[in-house]
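Its record is retained below.
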Amino acid sequence: MSAQAPLTPEEAARFAANAEAIIDNVAGFIQGKREVITLATTCLLAEGHLLLEDVPGVGKTSLARSIAATLGMSWHRIQFTPDLLPSDVTGVSIFHQGSGTFEFHPGPVFAHVVLADEINRASPRTQSALLEVMEERTVTVDGVTHQVPRPFIVLATQNPIEMDGTFPLPEAQLDRFLMSVSIGYPDLESEVQVLANSHGGLSVDELAPVGDADDVRRMVALARGVHVDHSVMEYVVRLVAATRTTPGVRLGASPRGSVGLLRAAQVAAAMAGRTYVSPVDVQRLAVPVLAHRLVLADVEADAGVRAQAIEQVVAGVPVG
């Protein structure tokens, strides 16, 4: 396969305008969370997956639905429970006696946008079924491989407070998510607007699409053409390597983290209308891309402590 052509200034300008239209459209429904929407859009265009660690009721489902509606893409929600089976996620082959053949019935993972709600409530076996699809973009049942739609993004949620009866994702599986973010509670003005929208009957179904799946695929390809200087690549590697020697960190980010950080930075550069990656792009994305990949010596440490560890790494590693 030939390499992606370098991104031109004209293409970068169109990319930035299209990304802004997507973010504006979603932000019209998800109030006061533009930064989270921007990161989710970056994740989609970098062909990654997003982990949302947050309490119930702050808009995780609305975020997934509004992204799908904004881009005219299909979406499914999977409620993870302890009795959920892998086949409930991926699908199953059913024997039809009349024809004497097996027919594959796709599971809910066959959508452009998949919301895996409370993923840590399912058994490790069921979690692994979803994570395999995330990595391979395929489902294999009875020796037959089925492609999921492209683009394809999983937004998985975890409740960081209620941990009883859950199966926390192991480090190797957390590493499959490009980013981890928290939506958080809205500010006063935004929450008032949420009430006004609800009172007025505003629904995510009323969002008018500003693009489609083909547009997303084109933007994904264009982002691959953003130039990355060798010095920026070295900076990314030094940042990630520094997470492995930071005091209080038992296990740092893997090379997958380096690849993910660079891919996300390419998208961020294109969203800013640039044809090249700046160290600032890398620094802005370091926390959402790397923090969830750390294993700290203090097992009681939360996401905030992991974020602080990454911020210390960014502050301590020189650009040049």
